[in-house]
Amino acid sequence: MKKTLLILALLINTVWSKDLTPTLKIDVNESVKDMVLVGSTLVMGTDGGKLKAYNLNEKKFTKIVQLPKIKDFMGDSIDTSVSSVDYLDGKYLMLSDSGIGGYSDLRINENNKTINIFTEKDKLALVEAKFIDKDNILVAFLSDEAALYNLPNKKFIYREQLNGSKFSNFALNKDKTLAAFASESGEVIVIKPKSGKIVKRLNGINLDNIFKVDIKKDIVATAGKDRRAGWYNLSTGTKDFIQANFFIYATALNPDATMAAFAMDENNNITIVNLSTKDKLFLLKGQNSTLNNIIFRDDNTVFAASDDTFVSMWKLK
Q1: H or E segment at 132?
Q2: 158 falls within a domain
Q3: How far lies 233's CA from each of 21, 30, 212, in Å?
Q4: Could you give the CA distance from residue 287 to residue 21 in angstroms, rounded to a whole number?
Q5: pLDDT tier, 217 (very low <50, low <70, confident <90, very high otherwise)
Q6: Quick one: which of 24, 287, 255, 203 has its CA closest to 271?
Q7: How many structural domains is the chain composed of?
Q8: CATH number at residue 129
Q9: What confidence tier does 16 reach under pLDDT thresholds 50, 70, 90?
Q10: Taking burial as the number of CB atoms within 10 A of a residue's CB, which of 22, 45, 190, 309 is the most buried?
Q11: Percent of the chain with pLDDT over 70
């Protein structure tokens, strides 16, 4: 009798996640390494050396930029991997491997013309780049340095070493006044992008490499190699996490930072978590390989890209 009552109590107090399948699958024909959502357009960087823009309303690709091929270690011509993309005011930003010495190429495409910002000759090992405004680009070095590059003056405004570990990922908040930088150390460093000033050092959740980070309002979410799906509250100083049974390769916060998405199992599913209760609300199924990116369009719509050739969209309600 006591055992039966215990089971009933556990069932009553357990919130079960709802399984969902994609309502839209976009065939990109190449693996998407990075993507951003700008209005109704997904801007994607692929391992086929392309930037692709897909309009969700028109349900078609509206722009494709093919980057030049690079040489591999055997001297053969291959497609570069476009590891970071962004868009602002008619300008498409593309960061890719130069194929030489581990250095990067950074380009801007505007009015169907592509110009070089950095090439292998500049000898910069960059991992990520995003617009702060029309004149400034925030970049991250493999060495976990943050730097702000000014386009009109063609120079760095600052270049700051944040951590001694290898850089993993950074994310900007909505108004681009804060950036959260993650590294192999498990520490998250929040800076002001315009000045490089460190605002917060966040520790205590991840003990190993953080693959992805997101920041919305006062919340910073982390996806860790140590199988911890974590979140920090910048205002209260509180922190919490959920232990998973697999590496957590990607994360994203919804616009008001009440929910987080985590890729936290070996089946490439995405778990939507209520951050105040830790309840697992939804399980998003349908991706067939390792997750690279997750984006909330709003509280009801989630996009994800993985190492396969599809970008999926789910409706939560």
Answers
A1: strand 126-133
A2: yes
A3: 31, 37, 17
A4: 9
A5: very high
A6: 287
A7: 1
A8: 2.130.10.10
A9: low
A10: 45
A11: 95
- Span 228-287, pLDDT tens digits: 999 999 999 999 999 999 999 999 999 999 999 999 999 999 999 999 999 999 999 999
pTM over 0.85: yes
Print the domain residue range for 162: 17-315
> Contact, 137 vs 131, CB < 8 A?
yes
269 in Cβ contact with 279 (< 8 Å): no
Please tell me the distance from the alpha carbon of residue 205 to that of residue 240, in angstroms, as a whole number: 7
Helix and strand totals (H; E) in the chain: 1, 31
Query: In whole angstroms, what is the distance from residue 32 CA to residue 91 CA?
Result: 20
